[in-house]
Amino acid sequence: MSTTRPLLTQREAAAACGVSRTTIRRRRKAGELPGAVLDEDRGWLILTEDLLVAGFRLNAFAPSDPTARPQRTRPGPIRAHRPRRG
Question: Are 4 and 16 spatial neighbours (Cβ–Cβ below 8 Å)?
Fold first, then answer.
């Protein structure tokens, strides 16, 4: 029985680690992800083991989506500044 190691696309690796695709691509080009292979259909595939060895944490908190619209909140009450008496 052979076991295969999980491979992620650069996009999937970035999402799993909570970093940008540029970070994954830069680290791959620097040789920090030596098991990366180029697949004709899916592009670069990254070993999850390589991500861990390179210091990434899988399922890290992802940064917020920059394309998402901000939630509108109601402003709190406006309080006038009063000098202290002393």
Answer: no
Q: Quick one: fold of 7-53?
A: Multidrug-efflux Transporter Regulator; Chain: A; Domain 2 (1.10.1660)
Helix/strand/coil percent split, the chain, to 5: 25, 15, 60
Per-residue tokens: 39 = 């697949």
What is the residue-level pLDDT of the chain in tens, covering all 86 positions? Answer: 445 678 999 999 999 999 999 999 999 999 999 999 999 999 999 999 999 999 999 985 555 555 555 555 555 566 666 667 76
